[in-house]
Specification:
Blueprint lengths: L1 H20 L13 H44 L6 H24 L8 E4 L6 H27 L7 H23 L2 E3 L3 H24 L2 H18 L11 H34 L24 H26 L4 H32 L9 H31 L4 H28 L8 H36 L3 H9 L1 H30 L2 H25 L4 H4 L2 H6 L1 H32 L1
Antiparallel strand pairs: 1-2
Length: 602
């Protein structure tokens, strides 16, 4: 059977070779009459049908796994006596073991077969995505280490499952991170169906881990209860609950767990995106004209005002965040700290929206051709940007309805309403700007590169001429001093150390001046459209970084201000916030990657 398949492929290649070598007149020759043409087309159609069938079957398998796990997790939320957290952990551990078996088989068997990886997708698995997998994977490992340490201290009142399941999670994170780092770009050409099913089950497992992390808040509630029990014990009240024998170690594990908890949700979502691109690339063959010859690299060039404005927004945001955290952790957050927090957003979000709108207009004025090449990575980026933005947009609409219906418009509620409206507009405008930039052709440096190179050569020549003038002047001075008196020579020798230091400082100043001149020449020779796009992209990158940091490390005023919570009820608003906030955090992080792509290709 393999021989027949090989012969069919050879005959197809032979058919292509004949047509390429001596192309006949297409107006007189009817290709459909030839057996070889019909044979090649039928083989290609069967391959396409087999690919679609494999994708459909693996997708249905993942859908059933997700529905089963979601039913378990939902049952635990609504009836935690019938379905406990340990039973959910058992289900997820079985899935993780199955995924680990497949990943090990892929690493040792599938990827090492001959002709297994004939093509690699250059767009898949960029360095910032794989770096994020490693970074968030390390934080997730630390999270499980803190969980194990906390459970070990309380082993007298906790089950051994509290130690076993985090250990399995650590092993799963390590092997999966290694697998994604080395094989994110592979287009597997062997064992298509098995590879698709393994990738889809791994995607489903990561989705269920994300769903459990979003909905399960039992350990957070237990940690808060433990802190209250410790305070009661210090006050002299006897308690019969399970408390930590050593409060210092307990606080260390508790604070570490709460601080690192958001990174686990980010890790699961990033792994799902990388695995989905790998699933789309199974069996894919990339032609040579689709492979970019020169991939643009990140260069800090063409930006001045964007980094300044972005750094200002970043520093102010860090100060606001620190003040909010100090106020929120010391006692109940005051009215003024909420006003300060929302004022920062109300000022920053319009600036980001205006920048995105200007960038979209410049994209329309550029008249660049659209990149119509099939690219699963870019298609997934668009879907993730639009899907992740629904978290913040949905929360904003819930807040708007609660504010309008409550009819209590003081200063804080007015700021929250403005924040919600501006956040919707900012998400939409930024998505349009990023998606439009991702679909543009890469800029090919031609005339501008020549102008920049000419400017740099001119700057270098001017520096060399100035250096030659200084050397000739020094030689003339030396000849005049040689005919002078011996006393002057002695004084000159006494000042040699000072002169050497002065020369070194002058050389350093010349190097700095040379670098600044070359940078300003390169900046001035770029077209105003490219300069504007780079300034806007860099400004939005820094703004999205601070908007990612603030909710990731604990600033959650949407749940703490009390308005929406009193309107919808605690349980309903808790579910809305737990779904919206992780998606919003993922949206900010994914926007940074998209904006960097726009900056590089501008």
């Amino acid at each position: 059977m393999l021989g027949n398949k090989a012969s069919r492929q050879k005959s197809c290649h032979h058919c292509k070779g004949r047509s390429a070598a001596a192309p006949p007149d297409t107006s007189t020759v009817h290709y459909e009459k030839f057996w070889l043409y019909r044979h090649c087309s039928s083989v290609q159609q069967r391959d396409r049908h087999a690919q679609k069938a494999g994708q459909l079957f693996s997708g249905l398998l993942a859908m059933n796994v997700v529905f089963l796990g979601s039913a378990f997790i939902s049952s635990m939320i609504f009836n935690n006596t019938a379905i406990t957290l340990v039973e959910v952990w058992i289900l997820l551990s079985i899935l993780k073991v199955l995924c680990l078996c497949w990943i090990i088989y892929f690493l040792l068997g599938t990827s090492r077969q001959p002709h297994a990886v004939l093509h690699r997708d250059s767009h898949a698995g960029p360095i910032w995505i794989r770096g994020s997998v490693l970074l968030f994977g390390c934080f997730s490992i630390l999270l499980n280490v803190f969980h194990i340490g906390y459970s070990t201290i309380l082993i007298q009142c906790k089950s051994k499952a509290e130690i076993v399941f985090p250990s399995i999670e650590i092993l799963f994170i390590c092997i999966q991170a290694y697998f994604l780092w080395h094989h994110a770009k592979d287009c597997i050409q062997v064992q298509h169906n098995l590879t698709r099913c393994g990738l889809m089950v791994t995607i489903a497992t990561n989705l269920l881990l994300w769903l459990l992390a979003v909905t399960n808040d039992t350990l957070h509630m237990e940690i808060e209860f433990q802190l209250r029990e410790v305070e009661r014990r210090f006050e002299g009240n006897e308690t019969t609950s399970c408390t930590c024998p050593n409060t210092t170690i307990c606080k260390f594990f508790q604070k570490g767990y709460i601080l690192l908890y958001p990174f686990n949700t980010e890790y699961c979502l990033i792994c799902c995106s990388v695995l989905y691109v790998m699933w789309k690339n199974v069996g894919r063959r990339i032609s040579h004209h689709h492979v970019p010859h020169t991939k643009p690299k990140f260069k800090f060039q063409g930006v001045v005002f964007g980094p300044l404005l972005g750094a200002t927004a970043l520093i102010i945001g860090i100060c606001v965040f620190m003040m909010y955290q100090i106020e929120a952790t010391s006692s109940a957050a005051s009215h003024q700290v909420f006003i300060m927090y929302y004022c920062y957003y109300v000022v920053l979000l319009p600036l980001m929206s205006v920048g995105a709108v200007i960038g979209t207009i410049i994209h329309a004025l550029e008249k660049k051709e659209l990149d119509t090449v099939k690219n699963p990575t870019r298609s997934l980026d668009v879907v993730l940007l639009m899907g992740a933005a629904l978290g913040q947009i949905g929360m904003s609409y819930f807040s708007i309805v609660a504010l309008v219906a409550s009819n209590s418009m003081d200063l804080l509620n007015g700021l929250i309403l403005s924040y919600s409206v501006l956040l919707i507009f900012q998400n939409i405008t930024q998505n349009v700007f990023i998606i439009d930039g991702l679909h543009r052709q890469h800029f090919v440096a031609t005339t501008e590169a020549r102008h920049i190179g000419h400017a740099e050569r001119h700057a270098a020549a001017s520096e060399l001429s100035s250096e030659e003038e200084t050397t000739t002047n020094s030689k003339q001075e030396h000849t005049q001093m040689s005919h002078g008196k011996e006393e002057e020579l002695k004084e000159e020798q006494n000042h040699e150390v000072y002169d050497q230091r002065r020369v070194s400082m002058l050389e350093l100043g010349q190097e700095i001046r040379k670098a600044s001149l070359s940078y300003m020449h390169s900046y001035s020779n770029l077209s105003w459209k490219r300069r504007a796009l780079r300034e806007i992209s860099f400004f939005l990158v820094l703004c999205n970084i601070i908007l990612w940091v603030m909710p990731t490390f604990g600033a959650h005023p949407a749940f703490e201000n009390g308005l929406e919570k009193s309107f919808y009820g605690y349980s309903t608003w808790f579910v809305i916030v737990n779904f919206g906030l992780p998606l919003g955090v993922f949206y900010r992080m994914h926007s940074v990657g998209g904006l960097l792509e726009v900056y590089i290709t501008a």
